[in-house]
Design brief:
Blueprint lengths: L1 E6 L5 H19 L3 E5 L3 H8 L5 H7 L4 E4 L16 H7 L4 E7 L12 E7 L6 H4 L6 E5 L2 E4 L5 H16 L5 E6 L7 H14 L5 E6 H10 L6 E4 L1 H15 L8 E3 L4 E3 L18 H18 L2 H20 L13 H12 L1
Parallel strand pairs: 1-2, 1-3, 3-12, 5-10, 8-9, 8-10
Antiparallel strand pairs: 4-5, 4-11, 6-7, 11-12
Helix pairs in contact: 1-10, 1-11, 1-12, 6-7, 8-9, 10-11, 11-12
The chain binds nicotinamide-adenine-dinucleotide.
């Protein structure tokens, strides 16, 4: 039995998360996987019902679950003055150290490139994002009005574990290749430490090919010829930029799923935000959230040594491939006319 939290978030989160959960429930039922689902308040709903956008009851329950599905947080949806950040503190609190972001092109979906199938791993607990690397205050300060100083934290532990997670993922993919992206010749100590740890981990995975590319050259190669890349591991700030660039290559935010992973827990969360411009109209693309749910099942299955969640994930992936290929139940951003729930229903039907 897996325990999985459901945190809908704000705006289109209220529409796409229920579709992801509907599809996950259908796949779980098909493979006989028991799941204890725990709906939990967060965001505006959390504020309305518990007076807080990240209610203590939600945090306490997340400590007990195997993982959770979390919709986007829309800060504009909050009452003025209550724009508590949720994602960085949650990642820090639960030590969700890597953001895993697949970038996959489809033959019949408009995209800059075809035959792209990359998984990015971005370290998300250190680097330059201040709330992740400081106990109090931020990683930036301004000693006088003419100077601003920001810091970047790189640790052996943080670099080693994100590299290890990348090799574990690569080991289960046909091409078995990991590319570490950094800028060691310039940032000799920080990128140097990250690169050293990647090289160390690579020696433990002789079955996986390993190479390194400097971040500026990588950004160019990603635009011109992304096809050779398989699994790409990088530090926080570089990953922040490259993963959005990756999403842009294959059709945009509606097609960009994600999973934040820790040692024992994971959070399914699409790359896109809460899209207030289209919220409440049942037109948001549920692909990214549904595929994030599939990633959660696959990761939990591998992490816990359970085959049923891995099978459920494979069922969802195959069903989604079919829905995309048939192209009769796609949302407007993919060139179709289906509603959010209509596309979710089609995936459920394809699961059978
Ligand atoms: P956004 O990702 O919400 O929207 C950007 C554009 O993409 C919009 O035009 C939107 O309609 C479109 N879009 C996004 N997701 C889509 C989907 N599933 N289907 C179809 N179209 C989609 O980015 P934004 O407008 O900059 O941010 C809106 C809010 O979301 C802000 O409050 C921001 O802070 C928040 N945000 C939250 C997260 C998160 O919680 N993970 C991530 C990014 C932004």
């Amino acid at each position: 039995m897996l325990k999985i939290g459901i945190l809908e978030g704000d705006d289109i989160g209220l529409e796409v998360v229920p579709e992801a959960v509907k599809v996950m429930k259908a796949a779980a039922a098909k493979v006989g996987l028991a799941v204890d689902w725990r709906p939990l308040p967060i965001g505006r709903r959390g504020h309305e019902t518990h007076g807080h956008t990240m209610p203590p009851v939600t945090v306490a329950t997340l400590k007990e679950v195997d993982g959770w599905v979390q919709g986007p947080i829309g800060h504009n949806a909050y009452p003025r003055g209550d724009a508590t950040f949720i994602n960085p503190p949650l990642r820090k609190m639960f030590d969700l150290f890597a953001s895993v972001k697949p970038v996959k092109s489809y033959a019949n979906i408009a995209s800059i490139h075809k035959n792209v199938d990359i998984v990015f791993l971005r370290e998300v607990t250190e680097g330059m994002q201040s709330s992740s690397v400081t106990h109090a205050g931020t990683g930036e300060f301004r000693p006088n009005d003419d100077i601003t100083i920001g810091h970047r934290v790189i640790t052996r532990k943080g670099s080693n574990r994100v590299a290890r997670a990348a090799f574990e993922i690569a080991r289960n993919r046909p091409r078995r290749r990991v590319t570490a992206v950094h800028k060691e010749p310039v940032y000799r100590l920080a990128c140097g430490m990250f690169a050293e740890e990647c090289r160390k981990v690579a020696t433990e995975y002789p079955d996986v090919k390993f190479d390194e590319v400097l971040v500026d050259g990588f950004a160019m190669k990603l635009v011109m010829a992304p096809q050779p890349f398989d699994v790409v591991v990088t530090t926080n700030q570089f990953g922040d930029i490259l993963t959005d660039e990756g999403a842009g290559l294959v059709g945009g935010l509606g097609l960009a799923p994600g999973l934040c992973i820790g040692e024992r827990q994971a959070m399914a969360q699409a790359t896109h935000g809460s899209a207030p411009d289209i919220a409440g109209r049942n037109i948001a693309n549920p692909y990214a959230m549904i595929m994030s749910g599939a990633m959660l099942f696959q990761w939990l299955g591998r992490n816990r040594g359970m085959s049923a969640p891995v099978e459920a994930a494979a069922l969802i992936e195959r069903a989604m491939d079919r829905v995309i290929a048939e192209a009769t139940s796609l949302t407007a951003d993919l060139g179709g006319t289906a509603s959010t729930s209509g596309m979710g229903d089609a995936v459920v039907a394809a699961i059978g």
